[in-house]
Design brief:
2 copies of one chain form a homodimer. With 201 residues, the first copy, chain A, is of the alpha/beta class. Helices cover 36% and strands 25% of the residues of chain A. Chain A starts with a strand and ends in a 7-residue tail after the last helix.
Chain lengths: 201, 201
């Protein structure tokens, strides 16, 4: 099992990543590294810069993830600032913006970046298309899960629960791409780079 | 006249700053420096980090400015992300969020940071309180000016025009504090630090 640091304090994200990465023989462990998040309309750029910065602080390969909800009728809003928007106007505010709006298409996107060396950062993205519900529904998950209905379903992420979310979610898709790529490029992960303080190899 | 670089490409901002700084014997000139804007709920922190970063790139004293509109009923939204929100949901979206809302209090805030040396960054803030109009009104200015009515007036910034805005605006207030401080601390601005490429002393 290869262990790699994941710059996050969100245990749900670690668990979601590890459910996907297990089959590739990879396990992430949370690392409390100062995270630099720049302002940009481009999730990939935010993740890339954060990974470069985290590597400088941490000195070993490290993964960062950033994600957002992009609503077509709102020109992509809340996008990279989904977390801030959730904390301020909330689900009710987002639904109010869509009041009377028939076109409710949206997508969740995740960008997962891994910094392997100072100048070697790879970014993988995952997208799940869907639509915004008329009301919040369901209790599973976090953030915008209660108002997002993934394509091919008629229930929200918060109604569907862990297993369905894990099979179609943007984050799961991005981590799957990372896993596939790492499985083919293990030589980049020299063992002495990966030892963490909390356990052996 | 002391000339200092201002990391912006917005000529309106340079002009607004110079109208205030003239009386302190200071003139800003626009400098095309890569700007690092972090995600934070704290405007001062965004300006401080941007100034530190700009100094590293530029090597001479440099000023950055960041500002936002904070609406009480929306928990401060759009705040530090005012520019992104303006580009996506726009004035109409912000007004829709306040539909049926009687409490329309808001404030504009600006944070002006000057980096004088690697470890010497000073931040000055300016605030103007007011309220959000029911409809956009007026043609002067930019951004949220058409929906912001400053306290003591019954017209929006976009109706009031240049002079009124310059006398009460958040940005003018922050630059005034900077000017006052610089006037008392001129020794920090050694002349050989300030020469720019576009003119002599």
């Amino acid at each position: 099992m290869i262990r790699i640091a994941f710059a996050t304090r969100n245990e749900h994200k670690v668990a979601e990543a590890n459910r996907v990465l297990k089959e590739f023989g990879i396990e992430l462990y949370p690392a409390n590294v100062e995270k630099l998040e720049i302002q940009s309309d481009d999730l990939e750029e935010i993740a890339r810069v954060a990974a470069e910065h985290a590597f400088k602080k941490f000195g070993k390969p490290i993964i960062v993830e950033d994600s957002g909800l992009f609503i077509d009728a709102l020109n992509g809003f809340p996008g990279p600032y989904s977390s801030y928007v959730y904390r301020t106007i909330g689900l009710r505010g987002v639904l109010k913006l869509l009041d009377g709006c028939r076109k409710r298409d949206a997508y969740f996107k995740a960008a997962v970046a891994i910094a392997l060396k100072n100048d070697l950062v790879m970014v993988f993205t995952g997208v799940v298309r869907g639509s915004i519900s008329l009301e919040p529904r369901g209790a599973y998950g976090f953030g915008y899960d209660p108002i997002f209905i993934p394509e091919g379903f008629n229930r929200t992420f918060a109604e569907l629960g862990e297993e369905a979310k894990c099979s179609v979610s943007h984050r799961a898709r991005a981590f799957r791409k990372l896993g596939e790529w790492l499985a083919s490029n293990k030589q980049l992960l020299s063992p002495n780079n990966l030892n963490d303080d909390s356990g052996g190899e």
